[in-house]
Structures are given as structure tokens and as C-alpha cells.
Amino acid sequence: MIDQQIGALFVQIAYIGASAAFILGLRGLTKPDTARRGMQLAAFGMLLAIIGTLLNHEIVSYQFIIIGLVVGSAIGLPMGLLVPMTAMPQRIAVSHMFGALAVTLVGIAEFLHSREYAGGPGVIKMTAIGFETLFGALTITGSFMAFGKLQGFIPGQPITFRGQKLINAAVFFGAVGLYIALVITQSGGASGDSGLIMFAVMTVLALVIGVTLVLPIGGADMPVVVSLLNSYAGLAASATGFAIGNNILIVAGALDGASGFILSILMSKAMNRSFANVLFGAFGGEKAAVSAKSAEGLTTRSVTPEDAAMRIGYARNVIIVPGYGMAVAQAQHAVRELAELIEKRGGRVRFAIHPVAGRMPGHMNVLLAEANVPYDHLFDLDEINEEFHTCDVALVLGANDVTNPAAKSDPGSPIYGMPILNVQDAEQVIVVKRGMATGFAGIENELFYLDKTSMLFGDAKSVLSQVVTEVKGL
Amino acid sequence: MTALLTALGAATALIAMTSGGTPTAAASTTLIDAQIVEVYVFLLAAFTGFQIITKVPPLLHTPLMAATNAISAISLVASIVIAGAERPLFINIMGMVAVAAATINVVGGFVITDRMLKMFKKTEAPK
Questions:
Q1: Cα–Cα distance, A102 to B73 (Å, whole number)
Q2: Do A346 and A381 share a structural domain?
Q3: Full domain range(s) for residue A130
Q4: Do A92 and B9 touch (CB under 8 A)?
């Protein structure tokens, strides 16, 4: 008995240590030069928590634990070491799926276990178990759908059909209704199989919600979806903590939930959508059919890589605006080469990164860092937006809607009010683009028709390589 | 910030003392106390997380997501208990699958976060 108490105390101490390590570790992430050490501390905290748990007196056999740990490491380690940086959005999406899977299985197991309690699980515990399973299950399929869209085996375009909203609403209210019914009927103890059936149906409906939530969302909205799923996965983990009375889960889940929540807010702000709109998953489907200014009668000026090289090569101050197009073309290494070349010739190069450029928060930063662009060259919207009017050349690489001046000047435009990069303030603008197709919002970009804008058509990687060669020859 | 940390630690220590590990349904008054403390823990952790994470620069938002994902794979500890406790075999097996899924995130998540953070470099000072 004494031994058991000492054991329990040791477990709690390990958990407190782990909580502190997680919080201090995340604090390390507030600065790039302390980030790595911070995360090593967090990893140490995790190790501490795992060792502490293995001493839990409830554990009677270890074979399943060991098999799980070995299999998980055998899959996780190569995934961590080998996944290329370009596949990071998919990697993040699929990891939300694994996290949610673990949480959901725990929720189901706890529900079944709770039926053996004499007085039932109680209201708080039943609320937590239901929440955990509901959010866990919808995060599993939601993340899988996001993974599919990012990986490309599910079409990236929004998939819509008639009556979709009605079906979504029915499924959603069905699952929430069952959840409430479960809390009311099961908290005081199990009676017959009706609880089991309700729980099973709720779980299945939650899995369906995950699919219907992500189905109507297009590729460019993925940063919001990925952040939101991050938040859901965290909240589900926190609910697990309530369900089993474990504080480390509550703390870690709350941290994850807070991070996903903050990122979702930042992303939805950067897309000019209300947070409520995002929370209820109504985004992506509701593109108002506002007729933006048509491009008829307007002409663009197309230039060759040689012309572009002349302008870029002699520029003193260049701002590069990367977008998803750069990621698709994998042009980040060519960009870095060009940037180094300009600097060698005495020019200054900065990168302007819009919060929703790419497919997840911080996507462009990771790609450029991988290509060895120093992070002090990377600036976000607020830091650099006032600098565009001082720059000679703004080079837009596969970015579209985030540079559209209509967001500021045209109240009739669907993207009116969205924060944009003030590329139009630059003395000259060079836009690298594959063709004249519109961006995700489906509207014309006035920037392309300005007198100061030159269009450089082609695949970003090959076009930039040509520009690099030309600049070398200047 | 420091105050929050202290409060968090105190709350966690408090529940460790009052509940002595896992609360049982029999001790119903302690159970309610413990559950109220859990709410405190959640709120304080959420506030602390909020304070810290709003300070994370957009530069590091992808590593942040990878890191919080690895951290929330702490559900591994719950999975371990279910895989190893005295429960019906199929529940132990469910626990085993959960252990595997969470371990993928713990191991993969921390490794990939470190790989990413390793890439972020400052401009080298001219020699």
C-alpha cells in the first residue's frame, strides 16, 4: 500500500515535470535561436511522462504496450526522418489523424469501462468521454480528407452537391443530440444496450461529419482546416484528461488546443473570414457570385527571362513574394540562388510572406529555410508591407489573390477587405506565373494589368533558372 | 507568466495530494473537488498556452504545429494504461493500436520538428 502511494507520487511528479517541460519548450519556440533547445526539452518531458506512466499500478501486463511502442516507433521514426519538407502539409494532416485515432480509441475503451462502475461515470466524466470521442472521430476522417486533398488522391477543388448543407446539418445535429442524450441517460450508470447503440451511432456520425466538413473545402483554404483540426485534436486530448482524471493530458491538450485556436484565428483573419464562419465549417462553400471587374479590354505585358534578368540584375532593392506556385514548382532552391546572386551584385533581397501563402501556416518559411534562405530575410505581412514603395522590383512567384489590389480598392470584389501584400506600390512588378488562370478566389487580379507589371510566363523553377543564368552573364 | 506557471504547478500538486492518483467513484466529495481542480488546470494551461503561443512568430508556425501535435500525443499515456490494465482482451488490443498511433506522433513529431528547426539559420556574419 505504501509502495503504491510512493509510486503514485512518483507518477505525479513525473507529470508535473513534463507539464513544465512542455510549457517551457513551447516558450522556446517564440525565438528561432532558442526553438531547438526548447523542443528538446519538451521531448525530454514526454519521455519523463511515458516512464512515469509505465509505473502506473493499474498496469498488469506489458506485452501489448511493448508491441504498440515498437510498431509506432517503427512507423514514426522513418516518417520523421524521411518525409521531405515539400510534403509537410500532408505530414501534419496525417499526424492529426493518428493523434485523433489514439484519443478516440481511448474514449471508446473508457466508455465501455465506465459501464462497469457501480454509480455510473458521473456527469463530468460522461461529458468528457462523449466530447473526446465526438471530436476525436471527426478529426480522424477530417484529417484523412485533408491529407487526401493535399496528397492529391482526393480532388483539391471544393466538392459540392445539392442538399449538402441540409445533410451536413442533419448529421451534425444528430451527433450532438446523441451526445447530449448519452450524457443524460448514461451518467448515472448503464441500463441495457441502448447506451451502447447510441454511442456507436454517435461515433459513426462523427466520422461522417469529418468527411462532410472537409469535402466542400478547396485547396487554398487548407491552412484554416489544418489549424482547426490541430485545435480539435488538442481539445479531444484534453477531454481525455478529464475522462481519466489525468492532468498531464489536460495540460498538453489545452496547449495544443490553444495553438490550433490561435492559428485558426490568424488564418481566418488573413482570409477575411469571420471566425464563426470558420468554426462551423461553412467556409469554402459560400463563394458569392459577385461579378468582379472583368479583364476584357485590358492587356498584360509579357516579358522574356532575359528582360526580367536585366531588371532584377540591376535592382538595388528586391522583394520576393512567394506563393503556392513556388511550392508546386519546387522553385525554392532556384529562388535562393537568384537571391544570393542579387546580393553578390550589391542588391538587397527580402521575402514577403502572406500568412495564408501555401497550404498550411508557415509553409513558405519552411520551404525557404530548407533552401538555406536565412530566416532574417523572411518577413511577414505587417513587417514588410510599408517597404514595397521603396523597392525597385517586386518579384511575385506563383502568388495571386494575396497580391490583388482589389481587396483594398473595390468594395464589390469577393476578397474586399482581405489583407494583401502591397505589391502594387513597388516601382516595377514582375509576376512569374504559368498562365492567366485566376487564383483560388476565381477573380481577375488587377495587379497583372498595371503598366508597371510584367508577366513572366512559365514554370517557376525553369523560368527562374533561366533568369539566374542570364543574371550571371550580365 | 511566472505567476501562471506557479499557479499551474500548485494546482497540479494539489490534485496529486488530494486524489492520490486515480479518483474512485466511491469517494464522491473528493471526486467533485478533483474535477473542479481539473477545470482549473485546463483553464490555466489554456491561458498559459495562449500567452506563449501568440508570441510565436509566423516564421515558426509550421514547426509550432508539428510540435504541439507531438506534445498532444501525450494521449500515449492514457493508451498505455488501457493496453496494459486488467480489461477485456479486445480493449487491451484497442489500447495497443492507440499506443502505436500515439507513438507514431511522439517519435515522428519530435524528430520532424527538430529537422525543421535545424534548417532555420541566420545570415552568417561576414568574415
A1: 8
A2: yes
A3: 2-279
A4: no
Same domain, A266 and A324: no
Instruction: Identify which of B45, B54, B123 has the shortest CB distance to residue A250.
Output: B45
Residue ranges of alpha helices (H) inside A218-371 are 222-244, 247-270, 275-279, 305-313, 324-329, 332-344, 363-370
Chain B nearest-CA distance from A9, in A, is: 7
Complex-level ipTM: 0.87
For A100-150, the pLDDT digits (tens) are 999 999 999 999 988 887 777 888 889 999 999 999 999 999 999 999 988
Query: Is A197 an 8 Å CB contact of chain B?
Result: no
pTM: 0.86
Query: CATH number, domain at A324?
Result: 3.40.50.1220
Q: Within a domain: residue A286?
A: no
Instruction: Report the residue count for chain A.
Output: 474
Do A309 and A183 lie in one domain? The reply is no
Contacts of A49 (CB under 8 A, 6+ apart): A14, A15, A18, A248, B74, B77
Query: Is B58 within 8 Å of A268 (Cβ atoms)?
Result: no
Confidence at B11, pLDDT banded by 50, 70, 90: low
Residue holding cell 490561435?
A: A262
Residue numbers in B near A105 (CB within 8 A): 79, 82, 94-95, 97-98, 101
Q: Which residue of A has its CA nearest to B101?
A: A98
Task: Measure CB to CB from residue A29 to each of B63, B74, B80 and give the nearest one.
Answer: B63
- Considering the domain architecture, whether residues A325 and A266 belong to the same structural domain is answered as no
Assess contact for A129 and A110: CB atoms under 8 A. yes
Among B19, B45, B97, which residue's Cα sits nearest to residue A255?
A: B45
